[in-house]
Amino acid sequence: MKIIYHCYGGSHSSVIAAALHLKWIDKDRLPSEEEMMAIPYYDKTDNGDFGSIRFMGIDESGNEIYVLGKKGMGDKYTRILMGVAEIVGKADDLIAIDCLNRVNWSMKLGGFLSRRMGLIFPGRPVLVWGTRKAFLTLVNLVETVRLKSFSSSGVNK
Known about the structure:
Mean pLDDT: 92
Strand order of the largest sheet: 2-3-1-4
Strand content: 5-15%
Oligomer: single chain
Number of domains: 1
Number of helices: 5
Structural class: alpha/beta
Helix content: 40-55%
Distance between the termini: 16 Å
């Protein structure tokens, strides 16, 4: 199974979701700024990364985890990914998850300042604060995806 977490820029909510899925960060406590910054791609992408599906790792069930920045395409990207998977006969092997509905205004503002404007300070502190505020919603999303991937693959846990 391949799981693609996607969001606007592919450097914040989707990356945190992938890190949670891969158990790189603990779901039971808020991560520090240092822990978030240690995650590949967190607040590190640029315009050339949009539309690129980037491999993050393999989970304990053998699922491949990816992230993707899609700009303003919204849920259309999920439909495109699933449509292509269906065309090639792999629709049952793909889960595409839109993380954008988990993003709060602090993450949007901080991400805009940090990534788009290049203003690491003050953007990053606002972004980190917003990510921590959204953390539990991302944990819930990932736990739902993990259950879905287990049931889709026939794994009973």
